[in-house]
Specification:
EC number: 1.5.1.49
Keywords: Oxidoreductase
CATH topology of the largest domain: Rossmann fold
Helix content: 25-40%
Distance between the termini: 38 Å
Largest sheet: 7 strands, parallel
Oligomer: single chain
CATH superfamily of the largest domain: NAD(P)-binding Rossmann-like Domain
Shape: globular
Protein name: Delta(1)-pyrroline-2-carboxylate reductase 1
Pfam families: OCD_Mu_crystall (PF02423)
Strand content: 15-25%
GO molecular function, one term: oxidoreductase activity
Low-confidence stretches: none
Structural class: alpha/beta
Length: 316
């Protein structure tokens, strides 16, 4: 007697994955995950590749859902017309082991990173209406523009990039969304006019050397290894001394290049979970004034939140 193989799980391509992950709902899913004590996320495995890139293997689970993210990151791919991040996320039922979904890895990475920044801005930004400065006009710059417009109601955006063509393309996209957008050629000078800042560069060298405003919220997402950097060390030390620095998770203790290269004790900084749960660590660290610097390095828990968000939408 022959047994029929189980049906293949639904595979969501990039467009379908994006449509299943609206930014406000995804930010809510991230917050719910941070309150869930059943979530477990082991350290990610990073395998160097012969071409200078890395293979990331990132599992996570709660009491209902398990995921594994398999992506490659090759930083110079965009210069050759290829995406820097490629791969998929496999979603399983945590109780019976069934494969439930396959999600497009780069799309989830872009959207969940921006949704985490959105949640941080909801909680920490003193002037969440902007104007918003985006430094780095690639995939993450676009995702953060969309997320902050959808989730915070931002209407004015300034965009800086080493590539004028990339900045102009993102300005055009913002204009199509109905935003007041313009390219700026000096990101340091633009900091003075923007209480919301997102740095989403390739983080191969310092991109920002000026100090953000005293009422600024900064989401720094480009540097996610100890050797990457976007913000000058002296600026990071100033932010730690005069404002509040928050990291996305404890994985940042050994991955937050901007902060590590500034010589800061990253392990002593509060995490986004501390903020959401209002822990004693957060109450000790928060200041009533001064800039807020949110350092995001990535975590498989964010991908689990995205999977939960997709499954919840499908069940409604």
């Amino acid at each position: 007697m022959s047994t029929q193989p189980p049906p293949a799980p639904p595979w969501l391509d990039a467009q379908a994955t994006a449509e299943a992950l609206p930014y406000p709902a995804l930010a809510d899913a991230v917050e719910a995950l941070l309150r869930d004590d059943t979530v477990t996320v082991p350290p990610r495995l990073v395998q160097p590749l012969a071409g200078g890139g890395s293979l990331f293997v990132m599992p996570a689970a709660d009491d209902r859902v398990a995921i594994t993210k398999l992506i490659t990151f090759v930083p110079d791919n965009p210069a050759h017309g290829r995406p820097a991040i490629q791969g998929d996320i496999v979603v399983f039922d945590a109780r019976d082991g069934r494969r439930r979904l396959l999600l497009d890895g780069p799309t989830v990475t872009a959207r969940r990173t921006a949704a985490v920044s959105l949640l941080a801005a909801r909680r920490l930004a003193r002037r969440p209406g902007g104007p918003l400065l985006i430094v780095g006009a690639g995939v993450q710059g676009r995702a953060h523009l969309e997320a902050f417009a959808a989730g915070l109601g931002v209407r004015q955006v300034r965009i800086a990039s080493r590539s004028r063509a990339s900045a102009d393309a993102l300005v055009e996209h913002a204009t199509r969304l109905g935003l007041d957008a313009q390219r700026v050629d000096d990101a340091d000078a633009a900091l003075a006019d923007c209480p919301l800042v997102v740095s989403s560069t390739t983080a191969q060298a310092v991109a920002l050397r000026a100090r953000p405003r005293a009422d600024a919220f900064v989401a720094a997402v480009g540097a996610f290894t100890p050797h990457m950097v976007e913000w000058a060390p002296e600026v990071c030390r100033h932010l730690a001394a005069s404002g509040t620095v928050v990291v996305d998770t404890r994985d940042a203790d050994h991955e937050a290049g901007d902060l590590l290269q500034a010589g800061l004790d990253v392990g002593a900084l509060p995490t986004l979970a501390d903020v959401v749960r209002d822990t004693p660590a957060w109450r000790r660290a928060r200041r009533a004034d001064g800039p807020v610097f949110f350092k995001s390095c990535g975590w498989a828990g964010w991908d689990l939140a995205a999977a939960r968000c997709v499954l919840a939408a499908g069940s409604r």
